[in-house]
Amino acid sequence: MIYVDPPTWPARGRLWSHLISDVSLDELHAFAERLGAPRRGFDRDHYDLPEERFALAVRLGARVVSSREIVRLLRAAGLRRPKHLYGGQRSSGARPPSLSSSLSSSPADVASLASSPLASSPFSSEASSRLRLARADASHWAARDGTR
Fold first, then answer.
1. What range defines the domain where residue 57 resides?
2. Is the same domain home to 109 and 71?
3. CA–CA distance from 51 to each of 13, 16, 25, 36 (Å)?
4. What is the pLDDT of residue 44?
5. CA end-to-end span of the chain, whole Å?
6. 75 and 107 inside one domain
7. What are the pLDDT digits (tens) for 113-133?
8. Where are the alpha helices (DSSP H) in the chain?
9. Whole-angstrom distance, CA of residue 17 vs CA of residue 61
10. Is 130 within the bounds of a domain?
């Protein structure tokens, strides 16, 4: 089912709603397409919907719920994608790359990984271990290059 919260979120001189699905991101994208919402309005697990599209969303079948209910529904469906894990970037619905796939031996990649918000997340012991490895590797490269 598709849900929308009332347009109460101010940004860029407008009020915005959040449009979600408790079934799948595919269902959400299909509904957003029917609504005429651009894909750039998709943000990790929801569409940001301007106030002027709210009534049309409801006419097309979206059920109006509170903002708190939006989060509860996403969590219950396993579709919640919090910023601290997925960053603040807009996404296409793809999962972020794993830390192990981005760990390489180049100093630039190691430094990038060490400063990654995902790597420093307190919610993942694997991320914490990888961060320690990345920092140790960065120290190795700095010592090797004489820049320590």
1. 2-81
2. no
3. 11, 5, 22, 13
4. 82
5. 56
6. no
7. 455 554 444 444 445 555 555
8. 25-35, 51-59, 67-77, 83-86, 99-102, 107-114, 125-145
9. 15
10. yes
